[in-house]
Each structure stands twice: as C-alpha cells, then as structure tokens.
Design goal:
This protein is 75% helix and 2% strand. It has 196 residues and is mainly α. Strand 1 and strand 2 form a beta hairpin. Helix 3 packs across helix 4, helix 4 crosses helix 9 and helix 6 packs antiparallel against helix 7. The two termini are 27 Å apart.
Length: 196
C-alpha cells in the first residue's frame, strides 16, 4: 500500500491538486491516504442511494467507481475500492444491503468484484491520459462497465442461471447505467481541466 501511495510518476487529478501546494513526499502520501479514505466513504454513500430491486439493487456505485478510477488513477483508485470492499468483508454495512464476507458470495458479489477489476483497468487507462478527452473517457468507462457487468452476471449466473442473470442483473440497469456513464465520461475531462 505504501508503494502505491508513493507513486508520483503518473499524473492524477488528485495529484495535480496536491502537487500545486507541495513537493513534500510525506504530505503527498498523507493527502493520498485522506483521498483513499474519502473515496471509500463516497462509495458507501453511492451504495446507499438505491432503488431496491431484487436481487441486484440499482445504485450510483458504477458511476462513482468509474469516476474514482478516472480521477484517482490506478493506484489510488484500486486502494480506494479495496478499502471499501475490506470494510464490507469485516462486516461493516457498507454495501447496498449490509456487509460481511457472505455478502460477496451472494447475487451482488460479482458486481462488487467487478468494481475492483474495472478500477484497475480504467485507472490504468486514466494514468495514460484517457480521462482528458471526452471520447476516450467514455470508451474507458464503457470498458469498465463491461467488466463490472461481466463479473456480476457471471456470479449471478452461477447462483441463479443465465436467463435470470440477464433478466434481473442486466436488462433493468442497461439504460440507466449508460446515461450515468455518458454523464461521467463527459464531466471527467472538465474536472481534469480544473486541476490544471
């Protein structure tokens, strides 16, 4: 974790804001820790804003995860989502309907694992500047959303069957998530411009 917090060779939105104020490595690491903690709180809040569909609720989490990945970069975003999942594993009620290790084995667990995997990939693309152009930002978020859906539907298929997974874990969310993704993909480059 220290290694990931200490990486300053890739540019992130948060890094730009911090970098404008100090070149002190210890202060940057401290600010990164605060960023990861606050990002995990944002994920908790986005899980609680939900439409309680069964068995997968509709939340703001996919949009929050993708924006965190595009703005924090791979290292900080991966730590952020990892911290969020860790809080859930130890039993804190951070997920849409609770917490605990068994929650991850349930119908929504694949989507949560998808958050982590998509954060790694989208954060990697963000580190290469994909968040600065609207077209690349949207493409990277489409890739991230595809990862989230793939892992989510895979686990839901193992538990309930493929048709059920599509009917309850894909179709109801497709249009709403697409609009949220477009909004996030358009807003992200402007946030990058503000940080310059």
């Amino acid at each position: 974790a220290y290694y990931m917090l200490n990486q300053t060779n890739t540019e992130t939105w948060i890094g730009n804001l911090i970098g404008k104020k100090t070149e002190n490595t210890n202060i940057k690491i401290f600010c990164s820790i605060i960023t990861v903690f606050l990002g995990s709180l944002l994920l908790i809040a986005s899980a609680k804003i939900k439409v309680p569909l069964y068995p997968v609720p509709m939340t703001l989490q996919p949009m929050a995860v993708l924006m965190i990945a595009m703005l924090f970069g791979r290292n900080l975003a991966t730590l952020t989502v990892g911290l969020y999942i860790f809080k859930g594993i130890i039993g804190l009620p951070v997920f849409a309907f609770g917490g605990g290790l068994m929650y991850l084995m349930g119908p929504t667990g694949g989507f949560i694992f998808g958050f982590f995997a998509s954060t790694f990939v989208v954060g990697y693309l963000a580190d290469r500047g994909w968040g600065r152009k609207i077209s690349l930002s949207i493409i990277s978020m489409l890739i991230g959303m595809a990862i989230i859906y793939t892992l989510g539907i895979l686990q839901l298929t193992l538990l309930k069957g493929f048709n059920f997974a599509l009917l309850k874990g894909f179709y109801p969310f497709l249009l709403g998530d697409f609009y949220k993704l477009l909004l996030a993909g358009i807003v992200t480059p402007y946030i990058w411009k503000i940080s310059k």
